[in-house]
Amino acid sequence: MRGRSFVGARDDKKRTRDDKKRTRDDSARGRDGKPAPWLQTLRLALREFRTDDADDLFRLNSDPRVVRYVGNGKTTPRVEIERRLAQIIRNYSIYPGLGNWSATRRDTGAFVGWYSLKYCPPTCDVEVGYRLLRSEWGQGFATEGATELVRYAFDDLGLDRVIAVTHRDNRASQHVLMKVGLTDRGWGHYYGRRLRLFAVERSR
Q1: How many Å apart are CA 116 and CA 87, to the nearest integer?
Q2: Helix (H) or strand (E) run with residue 6 in it
Q3: How far apart are alpha carbons 197 and 194 in whole angstroms?
Q4: What percent of the chain has pLDDT over 90?
Q5: What is the DSSP letter of 52?
Q6: What is the pLDDT of residue 157?
Q7: Residue 117 and residue 101: Cα distance in Å, rounded?
Q8: If exposure means fewest CB atoms within 10 Å of the residue's CB, which of 34, 66, 84, 123 is most exposed?
Q9: Is 129 helix (H, G, I), strand (E, B) or coil?
């Protein structure tokens, strides 16, 4: 009897450890099985990208109006989306605390777009960015997400400066950046192009 009791107690402890592990594993993931959000705003949840997010990114980058002021202004082929997605995922371990994050609505779980904090070549400045589905424009999501990322950059990462760059004609994004607290600093050369520079410094 003592032997059975000892084994039973040992099994109970193992079940307890397994239950705790399952709880930790479950808490690290959302209801859809994808990574749980690491940052939330009132209406948005941001999480790391996974390889199975390629469909959402392809849908986002297939809209000519969404990419009008991005790069060459052309939509992105599926094979290039998958290549970029793989690099985004690798960058989480290369640049801790920085990256591109998938954004969904907290009320419906629907994909909204992405937000980012990343180094802006050819400088060491960290750039805040975002790209949203056209159906989500005009609802304040750009301002809401970018505001929280600037706060995160200063309060959590301890950065002293955050920048953003836009095409000269992208008035909508320029308006968002100024609402977030960045100010127009004139022209700069980024991504091989002459772009409008906006920046904000941490309050001392």
Answers
A1: 14
A2: helix 2-27
A3: 9
A4: 75
A5: G
A6: 96
A7: 9
A8: 123
A9: strand
Grade residue 6 by pLDDT with cuts at 50, 70 and 90.
Answer: very low
- What's the token pair of residue 85? 């997605």
Four-CA torsion 172, 149, 39, 167, nearest 10 degrees:
40
63-81 residues labelled b (16+ CB within 10 A) or e (exposed): eeebbebbeeeeebeeeeb
DSSP helix/strand/coil, 8? helix
Grouping H, G, I as helix, E, B as strand and the rest as coil, residue 83 is helix
DSSP-derived pairing of the beta strands 161-166 and 126-132: parallel
Cα separation of 144 and 139, whole Å?
Answer: 9
DSSP 164-200: EEE-TT-HHHHHHHHHHT-EEEEEEEETTEEEEEEEE
Question: What residue type is assigned to position 121 of the chain?
Answer: P
Give me the helices (H) in 97-140, please.
none
Can you read off the two tokens belonging to residue 161? 């400066």
- Structure letter (DSSP) for residue 156: T
Q: Where are the domains of the chain?
A: 1-30, 32-201
CA atoms of 50 and 196, how far apart (whole Å): 32
CATH class of 32-201: alpha beta
The residue with greater pLDDT, 176 or 12, is 176
Q: Which amino acid is at 168?
A: R
| Per-residue pLDDT band at 37 (split at 50, 70, 90) | confident
The end-to-end CA distance of the chain, in Å, is: 69
